[in-house]
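REVIEWER CHECKLIST
Item 1: Sequence provided? yes
Item 2: Single chain? yes
Item 3: Sequence as submitted:
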Amino acid sequence: ATGLSLNAASGSVDVKSSTAGTYRVLYTFSDGSCSDTTSTYIVIKPLPVASISYSALDFCRKLDADSARITQVGVAGGVYSSATGLLLNAASGSVDVKSSTAGTYRVLYTFSDGSCSDTISTYIVIKPLPVAGISYSALNFCRKLDADSAQVTVTGTTGGTFSSLAGLSLNAASGSIDVKSSTAGTYRVLYTFSDGSCSDTTSTYIVIKPLPVAGISYSALNFCRTLDADSAKITQTGVAGGVYSSATGLSLNAASGSIDVKSSTAGAYRVLYTFSDGSCSDTTSTYIVIQPLPVAGISYSALNFCRTLDADSSKITQTGVAGGVYSSTTGLSLNAASGSVDVKGSTAGTYRVLYTFSDGSCSDTTSTYIVIKPLPVAHIAYSALDFCRKLDADSAKLTQTGVTGGVYTSAAGLSLNAASGSVDVKSSSVGTYRVLYTFSDGDCSDTISTYIVIKPLPVAGISYSALNFCRTLNADSAKITQTGVAGGVYTSTAGLSLNAASGSID
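Item 4: Structure as written out by the authors:
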């Protein structure tokens, strides 16, 4: 019958080309004389029907891919098979893509409806993943203020995209990291890339270390280079054990940060403190200004001054900054404003005179020395204050003690021996005289004085009425005429009967 693909000569049936159904096959034969027909039956069973397919032809071996699921319709319960390399679930047809070897596979599904079995197939391609690697020059980066972006090294497939968590200042295109703008922490950096067929993601880690913290400051910004200044001390907080540095000219202790102000050159300096917590280092800084000292000089006209009684104040010569204050030790009669010294009002001794002055920013002190020499000592005195100009008077003698070898002087009229101080009274004019004695001990000279009075002699005159008198019996006493100072006493040699009170002669 039509539908059975039967070979008329051989009786063979092409089953798969035949239409399903029940067929009676007739065999007609002859022995030459007679012919006959016999028959048999054949049933062409229809094949069971099923189909399989995956969601796509190509699958990429992503590390995070789930098994590829198959869609199967028709007769279920068959068995799946494929070539070695494809990790295939024989019962479900699911493929574990990430565990399979890259390649093109034919997946067979053999199934049966209880009478007949059949096999169908589909194809699946396991694509190899693109390969790339990323790394930074180090795991740990410190958030230094002067750090450049950390650069990434990419191997394999380029052109991917970088990503990470918030807080990491990451360039998505280049993978470079702006370390100083990032928040401290540990970050996983992802690099997602593709070869045009498959994409993948690789990663690396980077740690942004927090910078150690420290602060430094001096007690002031400005320091004056006073000669007696101690080192300026620094206050340091935070991480200790760092190193201090600055420009040439600042006498800085690298270990302590202290500054020897007086040994430093005037100027403004930035002091750097570089420190580390063992993982990261950093540098902080502060400023200090070494102010130049104002300049002044003082001097007296001489080093040594004698305490002469008529000495005026010793004047000072001052140069440079004016308006300062003068000071010295007790005993020196010093004008604090002008620096002048009242020599005669000062106690003998050696004095250092200090001049403290300021230019408004800094003050300083300069000094000089002055020696107040003690005056030599001497004393003079005559035996009396008053001397009369008797015609037979010897010179008035002087008593002198103390420094000898001086010179005596007085006003004109006094007949004075300049070397001995003796006065020729009778040769001197009447008057009151101040006798000066000027003397020296080799360092200082002085003048002392005493007074002497040359008294005028009193004046009187006497005369008798005649020079010659006769011893007549009736002669009265000779009368005297007296002028000038009265009340004196008359005397003569023995033999003259003289009235001592009146001067009359018997």
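Item 5: Key structural point noted by reviewer: The chain has six domains: 50-127, 132-209, 214-291, 296-373, 378-455, 460-506.
Item 6: Recommendation: ____
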